[in-house]
Amino acid sequence: MNISRRVFLSGSASLIVTAPMLSKGIASNLTKKNLVVVMLRGGMDGLTAVPFIGNDILTKARPDIAVNKPIKITSNFALHPRLKEYKKLWDNNKASIFHATSIPYTGRSHFEGQYLMESGGVKPYYDKTGWLGRALEGASRKSLSISLPMPLILRGGQNLDNFMPSRNSLPPDETLKILASDYKDDKMLFNALNIIRKRPINMMQPKSIPGKDVKNLAKIAAEQLNDINGPSVAVFDIAGFDTHSDQGGDYGQHAEKLEQFDDIVGTLAYEMGPAFENTIVVSLTEFGRTVDQNGGSGTEHGYGSAILMAGGLLPKSKIISDWPGLEKKDLFEGRDLHASIDARAVYASILARVLDKEHKQIVKNAFFNANLPDMTQRIFG
Amino acid sequence: MQRDQLRTLMTGKFADMVYDMTLTWPMIKSLDNHKSAGPNSETNIYRKRKNKPVKGLNENHARELLELHTISPNAGYTQNDVINTAYIMTGWGFIGWKKGHKGDLKKTGYEHYNHEPGTHTVLGIKYKPSGFSKKTKGKKQLRQLVNNLCASESCRNFIAWKLCRHFICDNPNKDMIKVVTDAWVKSDGMLIDIHKAVLDATWKYGSSEEKFLSPETWLIQVARMTGADWPGDPKNFDYDFKSNLNYKQKKISRILGELGHLPFRAKQPNGFPDTAVEWLSQEYLVRRIALINNASQFGLYKNSLPFIDIAKKLVNKNFDDPEKMISILNKLKSNNTKSKFNSIDSSQFLISVLCSRKVLKA
User: Fold this and answer.
1) Angle, nearest 10°, between helix axes A253-272 and A84-91?
2) Number of Cβ pairs closer than 8 Å across A and B?
3) Which residue ranges in chain A fall short of pLDDT 50?
4) Is B78's Cβ below 8 Å from some Cβ in A?
């Protein structure tokens, strides 16, 4: 007996979500601020996404993989040609870039680095919750991760859900209820199932196209973010930035990955419409990559990278950076772009703006009271 | 690689497994070692003389050999150790094609002209060139390095911790790990003894600990409990690397893919996770429940048996007294409706057994 998710939900469970919150929801939709974090795993190369064009150091250091047709956006910086939608947002004063920044981690291991970019701490595998989850604690907001696992970055928060479209249908709620009674002494299983049972109808419908295409995933996220009672925080997870070989320049592996980011940002902007005005999208990666190309026309694990931001909450487009330079003497350990700003300071200031909280409070809740300067003025001023 | 290479090494020494796996073509290819050359290698001296771009050093494989395959960052190595490991690994790459195979299957070996000459120091130990032939002088350095890495306490603790985490619980304690490391020391790294010790530790500590099963392990459990047609006849999997996969061979991946555990497709070189907090998300749980709900579509059962037959099979296979169980079920059901077990919603029954806490956690 197969009942589609839609059939049984239109019966009973959907009421749980929509009915009681309706009146409150309409009012809050106007001010509902959204945050979208796009995790770029593998070490996004800030110097490919946003190359420095003030001198020819970069093109000389990367004879095979330099960006040949960068789109100039300031006298010193350019955008990668595949960041087309992002460029449109830049032209509309809806994109800003924080350059030469990183989480405070210099160990060059993906797994330690990714752990820290999500945990927000300084000791790998130590903190069991994520900075976004902790920031959201008590904020009565819903979050949705577009991924199969629940990423560390959100753990520790409430009202979390994660989603990937599938062709397959769940059984009727009657069956899930039986499971719920079996799970009642197991907090993790019980909570997970409870959230599944309360999902809105459009997340319960089997999708005819599985969500491999990031545009399709961004569309689903936009739909949920636009829902007045839906999540106001969304997380995307893209892997594949670890280009040790054949990184490519204008085309190739890194370019394709950047295009995925561009697809997400562009789709969100288009699908969210006016709600994008109350939204900020930020990228997050574990480290940047070496300035020099390596033995396989790729780059090695580095340090400083860039944070790409987009959305109507930004007042104007700008590059924000205390640029450390690309001369050998300016580089971290003589090989990597230096990080002049702790990336966590950027995220803290964005969180404070989106969650309407004091910067100090965010630093305390999300980042263990680390010494993070307030970047609000530099980003939103 | 897993079936034809890794599994054939399961009865030998851990160090031999690491060394042999390090030199398999998929490992070298995915971690780029064939593209690496020492700055003072013959290749680069020649290239410099001819004013050609040099072939750089690639640290990828070296870093993962230390971090994932042997000692882990807990061992406290530095960037310098990584670079020296990469120097030792230079020269190991592809030396041709394997006969009779199409596609990417390559022969691996050592080519001295990419190797960084001289002595290289990793974690305080010096690895010198040996012998007089320039073709093989640097060849033994990698073997010595792997032996030393595998003989270290950091390596034993790291691998034993991983094994205990997989079989016993997400946070294995020192006592559990010690059972395995003791066997490791005693047998000088023999995998049979190490794995026996893992069984001992699991037997000793497993009953008081819960382990949330990964999708693949859970699916094997489901297949055993229901007598499902999965993974199917072993003959189906005699793959020759020459033809495309057939439907039966793909079925296994289709199901695992839907569960989020597609073999060989872990997104990163550290592979799939191994803890409940990673595997127990809403969407992963949805996938398991929906799989049982749509089992016939997945061809999980032979000839798309009706649910009722599978449910009966499950009861017969897994309960001490199946007759009694069926009569209890009938009685329970008849309190609500007049129907008998034969006609109860057996899909519901299957889900509530196969996705129960007891089956999800072992």
Assistant:
1) 50
2) 157
3) 1-28
4) no
- Inter-chain CB proximity A148 and B260 less than 8 Å: yes
Contact B107, B93 (CB under 8 A): no
The per-residue b/e assignment along B170-203, b for 16 or more CB within 10 angstroms, e otherwise, is: bebeeebbebbbebbeebebbbebbbebbeebbe
Please indicate whether, in this complex, the C-beta atoms of A298 and B58 are within 8 angstroms of each other.
yes
| DSSP 8-state class, residue B237 | G
Q: Does a structural domain hold residue A29?
A: no
Quote the DSSP letter at residue B53.
Answer: P
Q: Are A125 and A220 in a shared domain? A: yes
Claim to verify: residue A174 and residue A241 sit in the same structural domain: no
| 8 Å CB contact of B281 and A300 | no
Shortest CB distance from A245 goes to which of B32, B260, B291? Answer: B32
Interchain contact, B347 vs A128, CB within 8 Å: no
Shared-domain flag, residues A250 and A361: yes
User: pLDDT, tens digit, for every residue of B110-152?
Assistant: 999 999 999 999 999 999 999 889 899 999 999 999 999 999 9
Characterise A338 by phi-psi region: left (phi > 0), alpha (psi -120 to 50), beta (else).
beta
Q: Model-level pTM greater than 0.90? A: no
Give this complex's ipTM.
Answer: 0.83
Which phi and psi angles does A36 have, rounded to 5°?
A: -120, 120
Q: Do B360 and A108 touch (CB under 8 A)?
A: no
**Whole-number pLDDT of residue B331:** 61
Least CB–CB distance from B284: residue in A149, A186, A245 = A149
CA distance B135 to A216: 54
Residue to substitute from B69, B262, B281, interface A, most A β-carbons within 10 A:
B281
What per-residue confidence (pLDDT) applies to A182? 92
How many folded domains does chain A comprise? 2
Q: What tens digit of pLDDT does each residue of B11-42 get?
A: 999 999 999 999 998 899 889 899 899 999 99
Do A193 and A258 fall into the same domain?
no
pLDDT at B345: 65
Could you tell me the residue range of the domain that residue A181 belongs to?
169-199
Q: What is the pLDDT of residues B273-306, one digit of tens each?
A: 999 999 999 999 999 999 988 877 776 766 556 6
Contact B293 A2 (CB under 8 A): yes
pLDDT of residue B329: 65
A194 close contact with B: CB closer than 8 A: no
pLDDT above 90 covers a percentage of chain A that reads 77
Q: What is the CATH classification number for the domain harbouring A245?
A: 3.40.720
Pick among A118, A153, A162, A294 to test the B interface (most B CBs inside 10 A): A294
pLDDT tens digit string along B140-197?
999 999 999 999 999 999 999 999 999 999 999 999 999 999 999 999 999 999 999 9
CA proximity to B282, closest of A142, A130, A223: A142
pLDDT tens profile A27-67: 445 578 999 999 999 999 999 999 999 999 999 999 999 99
Whether residue A315 is found in the same domain as residue A302: yes
Same domain, A181 and A195: yes
Phi and psi (nearest 5°) for A246?
45, 50
Q: Which of B280, B294, B356 lies closest to A169 in CB terms?
A: B294
Which residues in chain A have their CB less than 8 angstroms from residue B215's CB? none
Between CA A222 and CA A47 the distance in angstroms is 29
